Amino acid sequence: MADTLPAIEVDSNAGSFVSDSAFEDGTSTASASLASSVIDYVYENGRRYHAYRKGQYVLPNDPEEQDRLDLGHHLFRLLLGGKLFQAPIDPENKRVLDIGTGTGIWAIDVGDEYPNAQVIGTDLSPIQPTWIPPNVRFYVDDAESDWVYPADEAFDLIHGRGLSGAIGDWDRLIRQSFNNLKPGGWLEFHEAEAQAQSDDDTVERAVSTMEFVRLCNDAARQFGREVSCAHLIKDRMINAGFVDVTCEMMKVPIGVWSKSKRLKEIGRFQGENCISGVEPYTLGFIGKGLGWTELECKVFVAKVIAELRDPKNHFYSLFYFVHGKKPE
User: Fold this and answer.
1) Using an 8 Å Cβ cutoff, are 8 and 314 in contact?
2) Mean pLDDT throughout 52-77?
3) Top-confidence residue, 297 or 53
4) 292 in helix, strand or coil?
5) Which of 54, 104, 161, 240 is the most exposed place for a label (fewest CB within 10 A)?
6) Rg of the chain's alpha carbons, rounded to an integer?
7) Between 38 and 253, where is the model more confident?
8) 311/244 Cα distance (integer angstroms)
9) Range ranked top by mean pLDDT from 17-21, 52-56, 164-168
């Protein structure tokens, strides 16, 4: 797939990738008035995890992870030229659902930009802010359970982002989305392929990074999940009955090695996103799925991060942006 996109030109003068402390100080406020079974979090390896349907999602929900999710939101908006979605729809006066809303930042931005829309965000973790636009609501829910929205509450736009590794049955999720859309409504996914790639041979020399990718994929299968499934979404949507399905692929540098000024800025955010994600993915997938100890995970994390920070390594991620319409 990546071979169909032009190679990214390397900046031979790029320096090493260094974390920006501005990414390290953010916090999020948990939602209030929830049952203790939902907010009585699980703590392991110094990280905090959701309690509702424990183990369904293996990544943490603590403030550190919330910062990473919010950073990813900024990255996605950079990639889309500031847009929140690509589907040709105006959400004003329409119903919008955000699956796996995380910190809720996408749903909140939609609510702010379209004040007459009705926006719902669902997630296993109640980590969304309490101060939100009046047209936005958040609910603790499992997107893989049966959806119980009444027929007269069907949606005009359903959005999912960063769900790879969290969904066990993508075909079922897409079918449920289809059934809960109004005729002419749109389903949209933004996903990154969980594979480090390069246009030169640097990724093959990065032994720890290649092992990290392989082990995460192997471990995800232990949980009945796939973390490298973005390339399959388009066909799955077509098979479910969606029409006008469009898939756009983008190469996203990991780090500031690109010669392009725009890609250098994007690469800075993606580099930080990847680096901050190595530990939770290692602890969550490799530690829990393959039985590694916390110490083994920590040592491995350090090796992978060192390779990601090395400016001689020209890694990129392949992002997929897919949307399709339910026939009218």
Assistant:
1) yes
2) 74
3) 297
4) coil
5) 54
6) 19
7) 253
8) 40
9) 164-168
Q: Is the pLDDT of residue 137 over 60?
A: yes
pTM recorded for the entire structure: 0.84
Asked if pLDDT for residue 180 goes beyond 50, the answer is: yes
Nearest to 236 by CA among 285, 169, 180: 169
Mean pLDDT across 43-59 = 55
Place of tokens 């047209």: 135
DSSP 201-270: SHHHH-HHHHHHHHHHHHHHHHTT--SS-GGGHHHHHHHTT-EEEEEEEEEEESSS-BSSHHHHHHHHHH
Residue 189, phi then psi, degrees to nearest 5 = -125, 140
Give strand pairing partners of 253: 316
Instruction: Tokens 């006008």: give the residue.
Output: 244
Q: State the Cα angle at 70 between 242 and 258, rounded to 5°.
A: 85
The strands making up 155-161's β-sheet, listed across from edge to edge, are 136-140, 118-123, 95-99, 155-161, 181-192, 316-325, 243-253
Written as six digits, the tokens of 93 are: 């006066």
Residue 43 β-bridge partners: 48
Find residue 190's DSSP bridge partners: 161, 321
Q: Which residues, in sequence order, are bridge partners of residue 122?
A: 99, 139
Q: How confident is the model at residue 178 (pLDDT cuts 50, 70, 90)?
A: very high
Distances in whole angstroms, Cα of residue 210 to Cα of each of 2, 196, 303, 318 = 17, 7, 11, 15
Name 160's bridge partners: 99, 189
Q: Given the structure tokens 């749109």, which residue do they identify?
A: 186
- Write down all domains in the chain, each with its CATH number in brackets: 2-325 (3.40.50.150)
CA-CA distance, 216 to 195, in Å (whole number)?
10
